[in-house]
Specification:
Helices cover 4% and strands 45% of the residues. By secondary structure, the chain is mainly beta. It has one domain: Neuraminidase (6 Propeller). The strands form seven sheets. Strands 3-4-29-28-27-26-25-24 form an eight-stranded antiparallel sheet. A hairpin with a 5-residue loop joins strand 20 and strand 21. The longest helix is centred in the N-terminal third of the chain and has 6 residues.
């Protein structure tokens, strides 16, 4: 039976408006039966509904334990939101890492997720010493996110037997808009393995999400990732740079404080060796990357990127200063930068709202921790300070 979401909209009265930016605390730790909310994902449906997914962590901030997959809906561009609803709950086990992708041809919203035993800790899962392993699941909605199918396991299609940890996204997948693979669904993922420890990869579907295939590995020093289709049809993967113990003879690529990037010329099936992007800093944290507009559609090429942005150095930076950047040259440079939140901030997800504004769901907080998933909405003019 499908999980039916509540239809009642709740007006959030704690909205803070500063000039052309609106910020709403959407999921607040300690409220509505959950100790902590983490791992945001934000997507806009073909009907213009905004869906905000996250992990609801029942008893602690831990990455393992009793964790449910949650969603809220907004039918008015983020002004008001539904109550939180459970998409997937497997008792005391971990249901997480939301990564939705929409098939624009059918309107079906796929949600890719991962599962593990709640009693298996992150360290053991990353090292391959846990009782069980991370597994990959999917579910879908055909009614604009109001209800969801039961979770269905697809591990055999999407995970190499030698891998230990696995994460879908977190963030969003994309549907290719051009070229011989037009219509393909591509979901960015990461994993750990004995040879190179941290690696990224993609999974993709050519039949509307029914079955999935696995790309080659992007490694080493690559982790959580997001993918975008460039104007010429090339795919660019943007990845968290993460070091780990690697097998003898494998080059580590010691991280230098910047993001890693890789490219695919065949719709996400194979990827180039990773390289560091000297324009984008990385405090060892997930980030978001989306396309805002395309010159071929009569607009201008624009990519958007968000992540915490402390001063760049080779050490592990602090997760502070949530920042949104814009590129006009398909990610070669990022001349536009706007601070969203000065204090502690971590994972984030961008989306273009139906009215052209930009939405951002991000982890924020005060005094050294992030305890709230905040929804921010702002105009393109605000981001660029009206200077395009």
């Amino acid at each position: 039976m499908k999980q039916i979401l509540p239809a009642i909209l709740v007006i959030l009265t704690t909205t803070v408006s500063l000039a052309d930016i609106q910020q709403i605390p959407l999921f607040e730790s300690g409220k509505d039966g959950y100790h902590t909310y983490r791992i945001p994902s934000l997507i806009v449906t073909p009907q213009g509904t905004v869906l905000a997914f996250c992990e609801g962590r029942k008893n602690s901030r831990s990455d393992s334990g009793d964790i449910d997959m949650l969603v809220k809906r907004s039918e008015n561009g983020g002004a008001t939101w539904s109550k939180s609803a459970i998409v997937w709950d497997d008792g005391e086990n971990t249901c997480g890492n939301p990564c939705p992708v929409i098939d624009q041809r059918s309107g079906r919203i796929w949600l890719l997720m991962t599962w593990n035993l709640g009693s298996d800790g992150g360290g053991a899962l990353h090292a391959g010493t846990a009782k069980d392993t991370r597994k990959v699941f999917k579910c879908y909605s055909d009614d604009d996110g109001n209800s969801w199918s039961p979770a269905e396991e697809i591990t055999a299609q999407t995970k190499d037997d030698s891998w230990w940890w696995y994460a879908t996204g977190p963030g969003i997948g994309i549907q290719l808009q051009q070229g011989p693979h037009k219509g393909r669904l591509v979901v960015p993922c990461d994993h750990t393995a004995a040879e190179y420890m941290f690696g990224s990869h993609a999974i993709f579907s050519d039949d509307g999400g029914e079955t999935w295939q696995l790309s080659n590995v992007i490694a080493p020093t690559c982790n959580e990732c997001q993918v975008v289709e460039l104007a010429d049809g090339t795919l660019m993967m943007n990845m968290r740079s993460q070091e780990g113990k690697v097998a003898e003879g494998v080059q580590q690529r010691p991280r230098d404080g910047h993001r890693s990037i890789s490219f695919s010329k065949d719709g996400g099936a194979t990827w180039s060796a990773p390289e560091f992007d000297q324009h984008l800093g990385d405090p060892v944290c997930q980030a978001s990357l989306i396309r805002y507009s395309l010159a071929a559609d009569g607009d201008r090429n624009r990519l958007l990127f968000s992540n915490p942005s402390p001063p760049v150095d080779s050490a592990r930076g602090k997760r502070i200063r949530m920042t949104v950047r814009m590129s006009y040259d398909e990610g070669k440079t990022w001349p536009v930068s706007r601070l969203i939140h000065e204090g502690p901030s971590a994972y984030s997800n961008l989306a273009r709202l139906a009215d052209g504004r930009i939405g951002l769901l991000y982890e924020s907080g005060k005094q050294g921790s992030y305890d709230t998933l905040t929804f921010a909405a702002f105009s393109l003019d605000w981001l660029t300070d009206s200077d395009e």
